[in-house]
What does this fold into?
Amino acid sequence: MDQALEDIKGASPWSDAWKRLLKNSLAVFGLIVLIVMILAVIVGPSIIEWTTGYTYDLVPAQHELVKAMPPSISHPFGTDDLGRDLLARVLQGGRISLMVGIISTFVSLVVGVSYGAIAGYVGGKMDNLMMRIVDIIYAIPYMLIVIVLLAVFGGPNTKALVTWIPQIVAGSLIFILGILLAVLIYRRMLAGFSSTAGLATQYPVKGLLIVILASALLGIIYLSSLAIGSTSLGPSLADWYGTNLSQGVSQIFLLFFALGLVSWLTMARVVRGQILSLKNQEFVIAAKATGVSPFMIIFRHLIPNALGPVIVYATLTVPAVMLTEAFLSYLGLGVQAPYASWGSLSFDGVKNLAIFPWQLIFPGVTMALTLFSLNFLGDGIRDALDPQTRKF
Amino acid sequence: MTANNDAILSVRNLKTYFQTEDGLVRAVDGISFDLKKGETLGIVGESGSGKSVTNLSVMRLIQEPPGKIVDGQIEFDGIDILKLPLDDVRKIRGKRIAMIFQDPMTSLNPFLKISTQLMEVTRLHLGHTKRQAYEHAVRMLKMVGISDAEQRINNYPHEFSGGMRQRVMIAMALSCDPELLIADEPTTALDVTIQAQILELIKDLRARMGTSVVLITHDLGVVAGMTDKIIVMYAGKVFEQAPTGELFAMPANPYTIGLLRSVPDPAHEDGTELYQIPGLPPDVAHMPPGCPFAERCERAEDICRRDFPPFVQINTEHHSLCHFALEVYERSQKEASVEVSG
It folds into this structure.
């Protein structure tokens, strides 16, 4: 009886794919390594500090000329030039590297999926315009964007940027609301033109009221943001920033932002392609025929169906973003000392390769292992979701 | 309000065209019909004759571009659907007009439990809470004859067979108690025994809920037992329009006669080949000047290839698009009386 009930409990297409994934030993290996790595990175630094007292930026008071020590019992990964424990630094670096990878991928997921889905579903001129914007951003060398962003807003300039946050937020809000208002009026006009009744008679009060309210709201938001922003909020934000966040941390957030900014483009294209092929399927027409709104069709009916390739692409984006971060750190644009990432650790290690090889080997191998695992997992998920082997 | 106060759906001179690379395709070209409350209308025709486009037009589901409803009037319960803003059309879809699609394999979302899909409709249109919607969904599933509805509702579409999925689709279509149900070839993708079950179900539910039905099909056997009135479509035009009994007994259009002759009839089986209408339907993008059926018609004369045929009224409810409508009608009338007396 229990077995029968078990069978009747719905088996979603996802659980089928999960079963297939578990049969792929390489993907399972990748998954396990990743889980271990994430756990180690989260709890590792605290454990090390608790047991030995070493942290990523603890410079011991030593008197030897050469402070870099080879791997030993007390320092399993050895120490760096300043005598800091390399294991603690690698784990701390892993935090930042993984965070950069995951958060940037998440940003690219949210932005790319919504953007691509809307472009694909709406189609026509709107689609054309939206994808041309993507093409234009694509055409700018993304490394250049990231470098300029980090150079302009990084370091001491970040404080000035923070002062402007209220104005920037208000400005973009007004921009979005303005577009919404324009769309609303446009649609009401269209409705009016297509009917003999006309705009004025069809929505005599409602339409006018919406327009007036929206414009009033826009004005209030703008004026108040100017007043609050320039006098109190902006400077106090900057003060708070100056006392509470160190420069290294702000640099990291800037890095998330910059990498997320460029990594959503391909995601948008992938999703748009999926949506284009899905939107004429019968279940979408059926959903339309039951009166579901376009918004719900996109987010409830289309996106879950397009998610397979998106997940695959996302798991492959994480290592790509991590490599970019390593490259930027290598250039000195990424994470700032005393913070470290796997990229900046490798950079430091390369300088001393001939004398202290462990300084490159440990962060390098850790990073390589993680990237391999991510790629294995991505491939595994792709195979598990492959339409060739998928049977509905 | 029009003269037909008891008509739930009244279509006048509907023209839906598609702009393709091959030119302008007149998928539906000047169609008119009325459907009274509680009646069932059958729309019959070959593939590409414009049956589905007609009904997608009624729902305002024509993708634009490439399609466009260029002319006509569709009145549903006194509301002119073509002049309604889309937001208001959406309130009619699913609530007052519901649709069942041809292929139950693809018309359910494979990634959503059927409970989600069933509940979506009632939460949207009837303002149900989650709990109410769920209970309603279970009730609907039971009504369409799904046993174990309480358990099955949590399944995904791929765990249902074709016939079961079509039942789910019907449950979904009927959950807001619509006034009009459009069934677009609801049995084409199903095997014969399931076909009969599904048709019986639609018939039964129609009788119970008093819904008007538009049944699109290319299977004359299906419409014979279910409909009050039939429209025969060809190349985007209505070729014949008549009450069901009269159309089967006394067809007034050579095309209808061809269609009727090409139905396999076990009683007349004597080893001869099954009749089929020669040739293929015309390319709707490049329509010949005369009657679109002329090339394939046994009865065709020069006038058919030259002039477009008139829409002849034979009696109050019987119309036929043919130069020789009355002649054909008289002949089949004679044959019918011979059959009855013999």
Q: What stands out?
A: The interface with chain A takes residues 59, 61, 63, 65, 83-87, 90-95, 98-99, 101-103, 106-113, 120-121, 124-125, 148, 151-152, 154-159, 169, 172-173 of chain B (CB under 8 Å).
